[in-house]
């Protein structure tokens, strides 16, 4: 080998090495995508890992809290938004953000495969549904027997004096589950009767807690025998072996939709759209179906322990835009009446 050939080979090798380093460096420089969420922590890692496997140049950075806290944070940041995407937040909250002009309407790839009933009706939609979650009562039959408590069958039953001090419920300003309960009672009973019902229920409430999951966990642990919660957590608590029965009140269940939206002010819209595309995919919906009885992609759910086959038919009348428009008024009135039993933050 001549000196010239040797030099050429060395130069070529160095170029290949340099390109490899540049490629590796570029690959290592993942684009961070800030996603505000109220997803259950059980699910967050599965969504993140699967999305990043399909999109290795993007890193999901979660900011997680309960629905009411995330909603308040987004509204407080309206003048200087931080989030790129919102995922796993109540559709009633997203409808409020849309009314404030904060969301970018976008129809993700594969949207035509989803059930349109669980996304924004506008085209393109401001938010795209992931799953439905609905009110469920967790009833600890072991503790209830000790206390001589009958098994309730309806929302009205929970106002009976026998249940005084035995019920925990999510705070509607903190929890999306708490707000869907209050909104549903007002929508389905009417304003006057709805507040009258909550006045009576309040007499039996031991504590309003700042999480939709916590009342069912409390019921499972026997802290309070009855917890107003939602079916995801109820299913998980029952599956863990806790002595709880799942009750779906016969008047109908308040409900909301976990959904995904793009923030209009994001500087990473290309990455955000890829995230929205993936969240609308069959793969993402299959993850949701591990816990939820109703998801946006038809045909991927399986039977969940304790969830009745007619579950979807139990969902009460619900106007999500009404819930969004009236949120501030409802929460102010609720706080004035019932804040005294709220769990300390």
Automatic annotation (TrEMBL):
Gene Ontology cellular component annotations, sorted alphabetically: outer membrane-bounded periplasmic space
Keyword tags: Signal
Gene Ontology MF annotations: thiamine binding; thiamine pyrophosphate binding
InterPro entries to which the protein is assigned, alphabetical: ABC_2-AEP-bd (IPR017663), Ferric-bd (IPR026045)
Gene3D superfamilies hit by this protein: Periplasmic binding protein-like II (3.40.190.10)
Entry keyword GTP-binding: no
Range of residues in the leader sequence: 1-28
GO terms, biological process: thiamine transport
PANTHER family: ABC TRANSPORTER SUBSTRATE-BINDING PROTEIN, THIAMINE-BINDING PERIPLASMIC PROTEIN-RELATED
Protein name: 2-aminoethylphosphonate ABC transporter substrate-binding protein
Organism: Acidovorax cavernicola
């Amino acid at each position: 080998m001549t000196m010239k050939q040797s030099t050429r080979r060395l130069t070529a090798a160095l170029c290949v090495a340099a390109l490899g380093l540049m490629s590796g460096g570029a690959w290592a420089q993942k684009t961070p995508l800030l996603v505000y969420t109220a997803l259950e922590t059980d699910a967050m890692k599965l969504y993140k890992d699967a999305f990043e496997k399909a999109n290795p140049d993007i890193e999901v950075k979660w900011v997680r809290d309960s629905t009411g806290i995330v909603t308040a944070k987004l509204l407080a940041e309206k003048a200087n938004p931080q989030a790129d995407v919102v995922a796993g937040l109540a559709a009633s909250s997203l409808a409020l953000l849309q009314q404030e002009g904060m969301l970018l309407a976008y129809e993700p790839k594969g949207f035509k495969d989803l059930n349109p009933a669980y996304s924004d009706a506008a085209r393109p939609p401001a938010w795209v549904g992931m799953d439905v979650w609905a009110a469920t009562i967790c009833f600890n039959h072991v503790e209830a027997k000790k206390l001589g408590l009958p098994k309730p069958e309806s929302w009205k039953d929970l106002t009976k004096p026998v249940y005084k001090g035995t019920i925990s419920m999510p705070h509607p300003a903190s929890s999306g589950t708490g707000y869907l309960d209050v909104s549903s009672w007002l929508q389905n009973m009417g304003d006057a009767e709805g507040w009258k019902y909550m006045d009576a229920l309040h007499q039996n409430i031991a504590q309003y807690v700042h999480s939709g999951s916590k009342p069912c966990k409390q019921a499972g642990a026997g802290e309070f025998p009855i917890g107003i919660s939602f079916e995801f957590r109820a299913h998980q608590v029952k599956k863990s072996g806790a002595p709880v029965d799942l009750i779906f009140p016969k008047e109908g269940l308040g409900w909301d939709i976990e959904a995904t939206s793009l923030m209009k002010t994001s500087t990473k819209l290309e990455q955000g759209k890829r995230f929205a595309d993936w969240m609308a995919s069959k793969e993402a919906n299959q993850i949701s179906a591990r816990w939820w009885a109703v998801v946006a992609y038809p045909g991927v759910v399986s039977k969940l322990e304790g969830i009745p086959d007619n579950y979807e038919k139990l969902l009460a009348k619900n106007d999500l835009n009404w819930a969004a428009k009236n949120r501030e008024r409802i929460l102010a009135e609720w706080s004035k009446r019932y804040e005294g039993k709220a769990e300390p933050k």
